[in-house]
Amino acid sequence: MRGIFIFLLAVAAGICGAVSAAPAGAAAGGLVMVLKVEGIISPATSDFITRGLKQAQDGGAALVVLELDTPGGLDTSMRSIIRQILSSPVPVATFVGPAGARAASAGTFILYASHVAAMAPASNLGAASPVSIGAGAPAQGKDADKDSGADTLTRKATNDAAAYIRSLAQLRGRNADFAEKAVQEAHSMSAQEALSAGAIDLIAANVPELLRKLDGRTIKLDSGAAVTLATEGARIERVEPDWRNRILSLLANPQIAVLLMMVGIYGLFFELTSPGAALPGVAGLICLLLGLYAFQMLPVNWAGVGLLAAGAAMMIAEAFLPSFGVLGVGGIVAFVLGGLLLIDTDIPGYGLTLPFLAGVALTGLGMILATGWLAARVRRQRVVSGEEQMPGLPGVVTAVGEGTIYAEVRGENWRVACAQPLRVGDRIRVLAIDGLLLTVERVSGPGGAAAGQYSKGDTHVL
C-alpha cells in the first residue's frame, strides 16, 4: 500500500509539473468561430461582427476568423469594426477568401487591424482611397499639395485615412509603405505579392489549412497578454447573419430607404384625406419611421432628404391646388435633385441611379394624373349628398292633417307643400327645397291613380 501511495504521488507531481511548464498564455484548442463577411461594409456588418466577437468571448473560443470578401464600405462602420478587433480578448484572424475574394478599401483596413492577416490564392487587397460625391479626385502621392485643383476636404480625408492605416501597419508590424500607397494612390496587390511585401502573414487555401498553419503561433493581444494558438483539429463553428442582420442590411440600402419614405408619406396623406381608414396611416407611419432609421444609418446629406420630402409634398399638393402643373413639375425636379444629393459617398452599391429616381418620380406623376382624372370624373357626376341632391328624389306621403303634410324622402320625414291635393300613400317627387320645407309634385296615388283624379274634399297645401 505504501508503494502504491508513493507511486500515485509521483504521477500527480508529474502532471502538475507538465501543466506548470505549459506556456502561460496558451489558448486551449477546441473552438474556432468563423464569421462570414461578404458584401459592402455597412452598419449591419458592424453589428454582426460585434455580436460575433461577444459570442466568441462568452463561448470561450480560441480564435475568431473573419472570412472576408468585400469591395469596401462606410468609414464609420469600418472604424467601429476595427475598434472591436483591437479591444477583443480573443485573437482575430482575417482571411480574405475563398479564392477570388478581395479586401478592397475598408477591407484593407480591417485586414491590417487583425492579429493575423491571411489570404487565399487568387485574392487581392488594396485600392483603399476614400471617395465621396462632389469631391475632386484624390491627390496623388507627394504632389498632393501642389495640385491646386485638388479638393481640400478630399485631401483631408485621404491624409487622415493614410495616417490611420499606417498606424495599424506599425501596430501589427506589416508593410506600412504599401498601406499608405493603397490609400494615397489606390495601389492593389495580389495575395502572393502581399505575402512577399510583408503586408500579410500567410496564404492558405481554406479555413482548415489556415488553422493548421496557425497552430502553435503566439499572438500578442492589445491588452499585452500573449496567447499561443492550438488550432489544429479545432472544432469550427460557422456563424451566419441572422434575421436581424438581414433586416439591417436591407434597410441600409438607400433605394429601400427612399421607397420606405415615399410609402410612408403617401400612406399618411391618404389617412389624412380619408380619416378612419386606419390601414394607410398605420402602414405609412411604420414605413416612414423605418425610412428615417435607414437614413440615420446611411451617410446621407440631409439637404437631399429635405428635397425628397419637399418634392413628394409638392407632387401631392398638385392634385388639390389650382397650380396648373407648376407644383407637380417642381416636385419632380426637387425629388430627382434630392436623390442625386442624398448619399454622401461614392461607394459602389450606395448610389441612387437616375433610372431609379426617374421611376419613382414617374410613379408620383402617375398618382397625380390618376387623382386629377378621378376628381374630374366625380365633378361630372350628379351630386349625391346635401341640398343639391334633393330635387328629383321620390317619396311617399306619410301623414296629412290640419293643413300640414309629411312625406318620407330617402328615409327621412319632411314637411311638404304641393299644388295638388295629397293624401296618405301618394307617391311624390321633390321639385325644390326651402329650408326644411320641400316643394313636391304628385306622381301617383296609392293604387297607381294618375294625378288629378281625386274627388272634392281632398286635403292639400298651397
Walk me through the structure:
This is Nodulation protein NfeD. InterPro entries: ClpP/crotonase-like_dom_sf (IPR029045), Membrane_assoc_protease (IPR052165), NA-bd_OB-fold (IPR012340), NfeD-like_C (IPR002810), NfeD1b_N (IPR056738), NfeD_membrane (IPR056739). Pfam families: NfeD (PF01957), NfeD1b_N (PF25145), NfeD_membrane (PF24961). The protein is of the alpha/beta class. It folds into three domains: 24-141 and 150-246, 2-enoyl-CoA Hydratase, Chain A, domain 1 (Alpha-Beta Complex); 253-380, no CATH class; 387-444, Nucleic acid-binding proteins (OB fold (Dihydrolipoamide Acetyltransferase, E2P), Beta Barrel). It has 14 helices and 16 strands. The chain has helices at residues 2-21, 43-58, 75-86, 106-113, 152-172, 176-184, 191-197, 207-214, 243-251, 254-273, 279-297, 302-318, 326-342, 354-380, and strands at 31-38, 63-69, 92-96, 102-104, 116-119, 124-126, 188-190, 202-203, 218-220, 226-228, 235-239, 394-401, 404-409, 412-418, 427-434, 437-444. The strands form four sheets. A six-stranded parallel beta sheet has the order 8-5-3-2-1-11, sandwiched between helices. The longest helix has 27 residues, at 354-380. The N and C termini lie far apart (136 Å).
